[in-house]
Amino acid sequence: MTTSIRGGQFTAIADLRLRMFLNSLRSKRGKMELASRLLITLVFVVGGIGGFTVATGFAWYFVSQNNAEYMALLLWPIFFFWQLFPVMSTAFTNNPDSADLLRFPLTYRSYFLIRLAYGFFDPASALGTVALTGILLGTTIARPLLFPWALLVLFTFALFNLVLMQTVFTWLERWLAQRRTREIMAVLFILAMFSFQLIGPLIGRFGRTPHPQLRRTIQVGTQVQAVLPPGLAANAIAQTSHAQFLVGFTALLFLGALTLGIAALLHLRLRAQFRGENLSEAAARPALAQVQVLQMGWNLPGLPPSVTAVYEKEMRYIARSGPMLLTLFMPILMLLIFRLGPMNSLRHSSLLSRTPDMAFPGAAAYAILVLTNLVFNSFGGDGGGIQFFYASPVSFRQIVLAKNMAHGSILIANTAFAWIAASYLYGAPHLAVSVATLAGLLFATPLNFTAGNLLSIYAPKKRDFSTFGRQNASQTTVLASFGMQILIVGSGVAVFTIARLYGNLWIATLLFLALAAITIPLYLFVLCRLDHIALQRRETLVAELCRA
Amino acid sequence: MDLAPTICTQALTRRFGELIAVDGIDLRVAPGQFFGFLGPNGAGKSTTIKMLTGLLAPSSGRIEILGLDLNAHPMEVKRQIGVVPEGMALFGRLTGAEFLSFAGRMYGLDGMTAAKRAAELLEFMQLADQPKKLVTDYSHGMQKKLALAAAVIHGPKVLFLDEPFEGVDAIAAGTLKSMLQGMIARGATIFLTSHVLDIVERLCSHVAIIHQGRLVAQGSLEELRAGVEALKPAGSADASRVSGEKLTLEELFLRIVGGTHRAEQELSWLG
Questions:
Q1: What average pLDDT does range B109-118 have in this prediction?
Q2: How far apart, in whole angstroms, are the C-alpha atoms of residue B187 and residue B33?
Q3: Which among A295, A299, A382, A541 is the top mutation candidate for probing chain B, defined by the most B β-carbons within 10 Å of its own β-carbon?
Q4: What H or E segment, with its residue span, contains residue A361?
Q5: CA B74 – CA B54 distance, rounded (Å)
Q6: Residue A465: its chain B contacts at CB < 8 A?
Q7: Would you say B64 and B56 are in contact if contact means Cβ atoms under 8 Å apart?
Q8: Which helix H or strand E contains B8, and what residues bound it?
Q9: Are the C-beta atoms of residues B56 and B47 closer than 8 Å to each other?
């Protein structure tokens, strides 16, 4: 394929993205999305400026003090941020499925480059690049002659991060596509989270008394980090600044080789995609005839069959979504993190050591937070099924109520587990705290559900709960849900603070109940209006969720 | 005796901004009819069927299904109709049996009845082989069959089908046809849109043709043929047609909507 054709294809894809963006502005919702995106971008810009300033200052200080090796202290956080942020907050990533482009006569090389280009426009990449630019600036101010070399090293480091991020995403997608590998990945992820948290207690244990093994471990750790990408990049600049050109060059060479190695792994995945790989679960299982048994639906006493049916459907969807299940376990995991991690209650300076009673309310608040994806885009996972809801003789009030019941069940289960975990890890919370927390949930849950129900209808976004990443939520929803969480957590903190000021935690219960007396009727009022709102919004809802 | 129509629209109109997608159509579908709703791409077929099933609000006009005003009594109407819309309206992360059981209960069946009917329908549609397979992993034809099964699980009096045979192989199409003919034999009314005119001709007793948002023909196939023949100038016999041979639905359709074959004169660079 000639270069001009390839150039034409890249231009066409760039034009496509621009057109999609411009066309999205035709609707009111599109304009709201743009406004929300601008606000979120503003937050990122502030973060970027902060990162840039810190990176510039520290890089200048390290290089001017002839301690450029310490640059690793800057490069490691950048590395972690670049790799973990896209995985942890897929809501902000904006990578359309580039596999859709495969129908066109793209060469593999073009496909590879397009995937990298998509990765470059990820906020993590943008912020990482800004921070690296800060390091470059700081280094250049301190030692202007280092500029070309630092530029080359930092560029290679940026390329490494970019390639690694895409590699992690494509391989995770591959592993999470099938149930068996998904389960293995979930276990590995949880184990990894645990093992990270063991670092704190281990340091705590060995750090209390001078321990020769600890010093040895730190020495080994320093040596090991030096041969890992951030350490290599720091070393490449540092050694050159000390006129150790060969060592510096070797470090860069290693970094380049690692980048190529990771790129080869990415190549394996993208090549398979390019050849038309199918990640469907059906392909992984032999098509053996199975015996059919009568599939009785669930039966919840006192509820209409339609509400029970939607409730059952919601619970089955959640149970079949690996990533979603993982998220729902997070409150308990967070308690363990607080207990075992650097902020554990054994340390006198930790927050929870001073206020162990706050472990349960904190976990309960987090239990509400992890439901955000489900509550604020409750029709997102239904896709084309939304037409079924509109065609069926069931009111939207009932459908949404059933969805809220499913979300509420998860919240109740998570709260119960959180209470047990908090009791086990920190001692049973005081009765007044437990009751106040439950009263707090009575206030916060209806408020959260009210906002979530409205946003689910006003700013829906099709979402596949079975896939990992590459799905950006509606920016309006991201912003609104963020605001709602701040309001709920802020109210909770304020109420508990007032109760503590008066030295009586039962006051918190009373205040929460008073607030619940406002939010419960508000929830019911909005629920009753949902039929009307859903009818008004049916075209937008159907168009958005039935999108191919 | 002239029976009250099962489906009746009066001046049904739908605008999208400046565009009038459906322009004041008056449909009459009698009970027990197998009714084909035809038209070229973009003529307004899907918009009409969406309005008839409550998926889209009309800009103006009135819709009556089984004598009930759809706007005033949407729930009563929906309880008595079945719908297979354009996107099939499936829930991909359920198994076929779970989805049908869900659909049955949404239409007011109790759990046991829904489960029994779901099993029967899966068996009839030849979808019972892999009960643990998720709908998202079904082939297109299997999904069409499942969507139809979900639309009939509550025994609707009226069935609306938007392109039910699109992307369906001959075997699956045969299963769908036999089910639909069975329903007609038991007195149901079926309203379908399709581009496969051959199938419409074999299945439907009555058709309506929509073109540029307007209803340009409506009636039984014989009535349509008679209408087209009457419009033909005297003595203008079709040389390619044996005397007395009936016009096919495709020929009727092309004559009514005025289709032309331009590819021979244009796009000379093709092939």
A1: 91
A2: 8
A3: A295
A4: helix A359-369
A5: 7
A6: 93
A7: no
A8: strand B7-16
A9: yes
Which residue of B89, B94, B131 is in closest CB contact with A292? Answer: B131
Coil, strand or helix at B60? strand
Q: What is the pLDDT of residues A351-399, one digit of tens each?
A: 555 566 788 888 888 888 888 878 998 998 888 899 999 999 999 999 9
Helix (H) or strand (E) holding A462: none
> Within 10 Å of residue B109's Cβ, how many Cβ atoms?
23
Q: Where do the H-state alpha helices sit in chain B?
A: 45-52, 74-80, 96-106, 111-124, 140-152, 170-185, 197-203, 221-231, 249-257
Mutate to test the interface with B, among A288, A390, A465 (most CBs of B within 10 A): A390
**Are the beta carbons of A385 and B54 separated by less than 8 Å?**
no
- Mean pLDDT of the A321-347 span: 61
Nearest-CA neighbor of A365 among A319, A323, A401, A418? A418
For the record, the structure tokens of A293 come out as: 């048994």
pLDDT number for residue A335: 64
CA–CA gap between residue A233 and residue A128 (Å, rounded): 14
Residue pair A437/A58 in contact (Cβ under 8 Å)? The answer is no
Cα–Cα distance for residue pair A153/A163, rounded to 1 Å: 15
* Three-class secondary structure of residue B208 per DSSP: strand
Contact A134, A61 (CB under 8 A): no
Of A289, A391, A393, the CB nearest to B85: A391
DSSP H or E run through A516:
helix A506-536
Contact A426, A334 (CB under 8 A): no
Residues in chain B: 271
User: Is this prediction's ipTM beyond 0.90?
Assistant: no
- The verdict on a CB contact (< 8 Å) between B89 and A310 is no
User: Is A225 part of the contact surface with chain B (CB cutoff 8 Å)?
Assistant: no
pLDDT of residue B133: 85
- Cα distances from A353 to residues A164, A226, A343, A508, in angstroms, run 39, 36, 8, 21
Tell whether A284 lies on the interface with B, counting CB pairs under 8 A: no
Cα(A373)–Cα(A477) distance, integer angstroms: 9
Selection from B2, B75, B134, B178 nearest residue A321 by Cα? B134
Interface touch A539/B56, C-beta < 8 Å: yes
| pLDDT of A504 over the 70 cut | yes
Do the Cβ atoms of A292 and B119 come within 8 Å? Answer: yes
Q: Note which residues in 301-360 of chain A have CB less than 8 A from chain B.
A: 305-306, 308-310, 312-313, 316-317, 320-321
Contact between B185 and B207 (Cβ < 8 Å): no
d(CA A10, CA A106): 10
Residue B51: closest CA among B69, B39, B63: B63
Per-residue pLDDT tens over the stretch A410-430: 899 888 888 888 888 778 888
- C-alpha distance from A536 to closest chain B C-alpha (Å): 9
What confidence score (pLDDT) does residue B228 get? Answer: 75
A537 touches chain B (CB under 8 A): no
- Tell me the pairing of strands B34-38 and B189-193: parallel
Is there a contact between A296 and B53 if contact means CB atoms under 8 Å apart? no
Beta bridge partners of B82: B159
Torsion of CA B45, B250, B142, A276, to 10 degrees: -90
Window 389-418 of A: residues touching B by CB (8 A cutoff) are 390-395
- Return all residues near A87 (Cβ < 8 A) that are at least 6 apart: A168, A169, A172, A469
Strand partners for B68: B65
Decide: residue A175, CB within 10 A, 0-12 exposed, 13-18 middle, 19+ buried: middle
Put simply, whether the predicted model's pTM sits higher than 0.90 gets the answer no
